[in-house]
Write a structure and sequence with these properties.
The chain has 216 residues and is α/β, with parallel strands linked by helices. The protein contains ten helices and eight strands. The chain has helices spanning 18-31, 39-43, 50-58, 63-80, 91-100, 113-120, 146-155, 169-178, 192-195, 211-214, and strands at 5-8, 15-16, 86-87, 104-108, 131-133, 162-166, 181-185, 202-204. The strands form two sheets. Strands 5-4-1-6-7-8 form a six-stranded parallel β-sheet. Helix 3 (50-58) packs across helix 4 (63-80).
Length: 216
């Protein structure tokens, strides 16, 4: 295996939680009078922090207000998120491929770690992932390299032996800032041409296309 560790983004990379995300945002936005925010506009913010997303969607910059909305979103997510998140057909095949070939497998996401664990609890044994860094685990979020750096410290692996896989510009920037190889997947809202702006091993239409690019 070429890589000692393969780290994945979650939303739009391993699973599609857009329905849950949109529902939670709309619940909060409409409660506060923002009734004309399109679902597609919300989807374009997936991968950013909740505070940044609310700021983009409303124009609000007051940190206290954004934090209050974040808390409201988290409460909505307890009801709407996991039930409205759907795993991609090739996700488990790809994850198990890397594990079977000796690579450590992890997730770096702005989504909370407990939510990721709740979701994957339906598909994989407890403790299956070698590392998960969620939004509650860092003080600086993607594209800052803090999350990847933390994961590598926990794994005891240098950046030279790591691949990062994600669907967004934020993911491309994260890989670049972290000094790790990057493969972009166009299963989200980001076009191939946008992902190609970042150093990459490949830009692929489906997650399973990663296997021939990584080799043994």
């Amino acid at each position: 295996m070429k890589y000692k560790a393969v780290l994945f983004d979650f939303d739009y990379t391993l699973a599609d939680s857009s329905r849950g995300i949109v529902t939670c945002f709309q619940q909060v936005l409409k409660r506060h009078g923002y009734t004309d925010v399109a679902d597609e506009t919300i989807k374009r913010t997936i991968g950013k922090t909740l505070e940044d997303s609310f700021s983009i969607l409303t124009g609000e910059t007051n940190a206290e207000q954004l934090e209050n909305w974040r808390k409201e979103y988290v409460k909505e997510a307890d009801t709407y998120m996991t039930v409205n998140t759907h795993i991609y057909p090739d996700t488990l095949e790809v994850l198990e491929y890397f594990k079977a070939n000796g690579a450590k497998v992890g997730i770096i996401s702005t989504k909370y770690r407990f939510r990721i664990l709740e979701f994957f609890g339906k598909y994989l044994p407890e403790g299956w992932f070698d590392v998960i860094v969620g939004g509650e685990d860092v003080t600086k979020h993607k594209p800052d390299p803090q999350g990847v750096t933390l994961a590598l410290e926990r794994l005891g692996i240098s950046s030279a032996n790591v691949l990062y896989v994600g669907d967004s510009v934020v993911d491309g920037e994260t890989a670049k800032n972290s000094g790790v190889d990057f493969i972009g997947v166009t299963t989200g809202m980001t076009m191939k041409e946008e992902l190609e702006r970042f150093p990459h091993i490949g830009i692929i239409p489906e997650l399973k296309n990663i296997i021939p690019l990584t080799g043994k």
